[in-house]
Amino acid sequence: MRLVVHASDYEQAVHFFRDVLGAPVAEEYASDGGAHVTILDVGRATLELANDAQVELIDRVEVGRRVAPHLRVALEVDDCEASTHDAVEGGAAQIAPPTRTPWDSLNSRLHAPAGIHLTLFQELGQPDG
């Protein structure tokens, strides 16, 4: 699956996702008339369909109130605290800080470049013992 995002500030969006969040470039193309596209490898894609109650639950857990628009992108990271800090330093606006969820992940919520509503999440897993 490929998610295609129209980024009016293309350079800012590429910088944020490639350089700040570390998504490697898979392909890049330029065409006549100044057309550009950069395809970043952000891992395996899934399509998560959630009903109203689930969206409200996720927002309540991660943010404390309903904030999600129709589409939210979630990216798994190794260190949610550090990645959230880097994202904010790199141009994202923090909506909610990293928060431990009932499903045992650490999730933060951001407004990212290109108008993307973004969740960064770190799977915490079960403690040893």
TrEMBL record:
<dbReference type="InterPro" id="IPR037523">
    <property type="entry name" value="VOC_core"/>
</dbReference>
<dbReference type="Pfam" id="PF00903">
    <property type="entry name" value="Glyoxalase"/>
</dbReference>
<feature type="domain" description="VOC">
    <location>
        <begin position="1"/>
        <end position="123"/>
    </location>
</feature>
<dbReference type="InterPro" id="IPR004360">
    <property type="entry name" value="Glyas_Fos-R_dOase_dom"/>
</dbReference>
<dbReference type="InterPro" id="IPR029068">
    <property type="entry name" value="Glyas_Bleomycin-R_OHBP_Dase"/>
</dbReference>
<protein>
    <submittedName>
        <fullName>Glyoxalase</fullName>
    </submittedName>
</protein>
